[in-house]
């Protein structure tokens, strides 16, 4: 992705080789696992803390003021407990709003996940792009600014899906997911007008790649689906610089509620290298 996620922050690559940096990967739930998978490939020596604020899930329904307060409060606890060298906000809903407040509050670099409007604009041939995201992300000024900066020559359809993140969590937990509900959620992405039709859909919620194969199957016609996770992982690897590990990296998953930690979910987490799971209770009202 070409969008400079750290523009204006003054961050430069951590120049010296790190023995064993700790990466904090943060999301409202399980969607950040799609970013984690790329990060562990790009930064195989880093210790990983995967933090799911499942007590706050879904973030798409929180007001902007609630979301800023919630993310700062949870990050406060996580930074105090795990002392990360770098945090990846693997959540578009939070990144499109909270990054400036996080950078102002904490002395570590933050890498965000924002809608891939510029790569979408570069990839489209028909000029019809759809941004599939949460209702929160599509409502952000930040998202509109990205469109104004990179995609004014194109027609961009913003689709705020209300149920897709929850369905993605269900799929990962091995619970049944109704194809017709997924079909209805993605249907507004597919536009036909004046002999042209949508040819690019950006996956602008980190949960959605968990449903990618299903969405490809249910799409009314083939499109290019853009997942920004590989670009985010490259960016993080650049920032961390070369590693000189002394020990095998450690990975742990942290949940702020832990309410939905079923056996199939634990197996799925282990598949992402997260066999160790801890609960750091942070109720939503806190
Ligand atoms: N995974 C998140 C995102 O990228 C948000 C899902 C939610 O909590 O609503 O937007």
Q: How does this structure look, described?
A:
- The chain has 286 residues and is an alpha/beta fold.
- The chain has two domains: 22-113 and 230-279, Rossmann fold (3-Layer(aba) Sandwich); 117-227, Rossmann fold, CATH 3.40.50.1860.
- It is built from eleven helices and twelve strands.
- It has helices spanning 33-42, 64-82, 92-105, 117-123, 135-139, 141-150, 164-172, 179-186, 212-218, 229-240, 263-271; strands at residues 22-27, 47-52, 86-89, 110-112, 128-133, 155-160, 192-193, 196-197, 200-203, 224-226, 251-255, 276-279.
- The strands form three sheets. The protein has a six-stranded parallel β-sheet with strand order 4-3-1-2-11-12, with helices on both faces. The chain has a four-stranded parallel β-sheet with strand order 6-5-9-10. Strands 7-8 form a two-stranded antiparallel ribbon.
- Strand 9 (200-203), helix 9 (212-218) and strand 10 form a beta-alpha-beta unit.
- Helix 2 (64-82) packs across helix 3.
- The radius of gyration is 18 Å and the shape is globular.
- The model is unreliable at 1-13 (pLDDT under 50).
- The chain binds D-glutamic acid.
- The site of D-glutamic acid (DGL) has 17 residues, from helix 3.
Topology:
Layout (H helix, E strand, L loop, with lengths): L21 E6 L5 H10 L4 E6 L11 H19 L3 E4 L2 H14 L4 E3 L4 H7 L4 E6 L1 H5 L1 H10 L4 E6 L3 H9 L6 H8 L5 E2 L2 E2 L2 E4 L8 H7 L5 E3 L2 H12 L10 E5 L7 H9 L4 E4 L7
Parallel strand pairs: 1-2, 1-3, 2-11, 3-4, 5-6, 5-9, 9-10, 11-12
Antiparallel strand pairs: 7-8
Bound molecules: D-glutamic acid (DGL).
